[in-house]
Amino acid sequence: MTIRSNLTPFFLLGCSVVGTAWVHAEEVLPWSVSVTEENDKFTPGNKDRYYTQGLKVAINRPDDIFFSIAQEINTPSDTVNPPSVLPPYTDLPYSGALYLGAGFGRVFERGGRRDVFFALEAKLGVIGPSAGGETVQNKFHQLIGTAQAVGWGTQLPDEILMNVDVELRRRFDLDGPESDHWDLIARSGLMLGTMRTQFLLGGQLRRGDGLNRSWGQTFLRHSTSYDPVANLRGAGQARTSYWFFADGQVEVVARNYATDGTNFRDSQAVSREPIVLQTSVGFSYQHADWSLSYYLAARTREFEMQDGMHLIGGLKAQLLY
Prior knowledge:
With 321 residues, the protein is mainly β. Helix content is 13%, strand content 48%. It has helices at residues 2-28, 133-144, 257-260, and strands at residues 32-39, 50-60, 65-75, 95-110, 113-127, 159-173, 182-193, 196-209, 240-256, 275-287, 290-299, 310-320.
């Protein structure tokens, strides 16, 4: 009886420690899966042209390793009238890209503030008919009852896609860490490879509640798939958060497969603009283990003969598990 009585407090303490550790791991180490769809159908103009569709599925693990699969589709300005069977050489060629991504990221702590974000991602895939752009676009048009694109026979030929992307972000609390209603996220990115070679600078201003749960809205073609999720669940976190955002970026472009064509095979190409600007606005809502975002982006010309600015809309859904 005496031995059992003496061991009871230690047994209860051990159970408490194990239980606390298990709960803590459940709270701060979730996995997440996100789906991002970008499409000019999500814009007021609803014009099916240029960068017309992008889809990415990404998985982020609790050890800061992430994976993704993505597809991009590009078309000329006219895809249904007879001339589009053989698009003019002054217009964007048909092209598709399909690729896998893998990388790692880290949020660094400086003086108690986790306000610096770094990510590195490698991408491997294919540009050309094997990317499935024609099938995806025309099957979707058939589903929604719109005319199919008729010029995919002129698309860029098959070529391997290889890219390495690096991204850095810095978060500034504009009203102090205790308030967390205004912030600014500055970012830079470097992309090197056969798909895109460019450098960009951007910033995102956000107004809302619970901003520390996110590193801002990203864009499918111009950011890595790293999405830190440690702050999405845990003690002291509100179950609901939301914010509006306004974003701007400048891109210095040395290569873009959609305008420059393939690297090692003959293909159609257009005269690329070396500087591209983008502005966007949007809204994000998070509740418990899921979130949903919408954004609308306006982009300046990516090639010389482009017909004005281009609008693209995006939807992103995320689920923790």
